[in-house]
């Protein structure tokens, strides 16, 4: 099989997200990848990743390390915590082995040093996407609910309850830390990648929606409890 | 002219890329010159570092070398009287080539 020019119908829906502040690289890769039937979405920094992934799931994310604000390693950690199935390739002009190792340790699927030939990028992306292992769906039991993070849904009494991407991210984080008190700061960092702002009520509103979907009593919740002046705690089995 | 880029993208896409590059390169030139004149080596190094990712596409052997010197903050060389002139000449040469390349489109 020709790796560089596989049949159009095999890849025409491939969505690539490039997160990099270099507008020339955006244009270069957009032109090159379009010519190979991939669609490139671009972001100039990591702040928009959370919002982007709430609306669509790219087949791969190309993530620059040196960016304004939080660096690529920060966003890689965030992606691995919130969207662990999306492959990530790090891009950087730095050549230090230490940085490469750090990225790979955090879970990057590959690492490409700039400048690179777009053909090399294409081959590496293809290899990652081709070798993506078949994902075993792992479900988590929360009382009488079964949470499926991959499918973004809950199931209770043979009824499927659809979750939004934000609700899924939050519930996944709570499950990963079940039994522990999680501050709003920790939750904001985990699901949005930024600090918690007291005036922003989105976490509390998402918690309220999750309680309803879990069938929890808003006044006396069993699973998702508010810990006064501290944050929230999820109990998996009451 | 721009053989690397043309081989990579084809002529039409190369022209579309260079149309965007024209404006971006002017901004890079301005920012680099300002950084070097103010002896703000760190800022100049960050800008040079970013441009290095695509500098090889303009078929200039000089631009990547000049950017490497700025990236490494080799102040002895950067403070030489003709360094900024050399850099500007290189940008001007590339910009002129881009004009010619874009104009040469039916």
Automatic annotation (TrEMBL), chain A:
Q: A GO molecular function for this record? A: phosphorelay response regulator activity
User: Which ranges of the sequence are annotated as binding DNA?
Assistant: 137-236
Q: Which residues carry this modification: 4-aspartylphosphate?
A: 64
Give UniProt keywords alphabetically: DNA-binding, Phosphoprotein, Transcription, Transcription regulation, Two-component regulatory system
CDD domains per record: REC_OmpR, trans_reg_C
Q: Which domain of life is it from?
A: Bacteria
Does the keyword section mention Metal-binding?
Answer: no
The chain positions of domain OmpR/PhoB-type read 137-236
Signal peptide positions (record): none
Q: Which residues form the Response regulatory domain?
A: 15-129
* Keyword hit for Magnesium: no
GO CC terms in record: cytosol; protein-DNA complex
Offer one example of a GO biological process linked to this entry.
regulation of DNA-templated transcription
Name the record gives this protein: Two-component system, OmpR family, phosphate regulon response regulator OmpR
Which species does the entry assign this protein to? Answer: Thiothrix caldifontis
Taxonomically, what lineage is the organism? Bacteria, Pseudomonadati, Pseudomonadota, Gammaproteobacteria, Thiotrichales
TrEMBL record, chain B:
Q: What is this protein called?
A: Hpt domain-containing protein
| UniProt-listed GO biological process terms | phosphorelay signal transduction system
Upper classification of the organism: Bacteria, Pseudomonadati, Pseudomonadota, Gammaproteobacteria, Thiotrichales
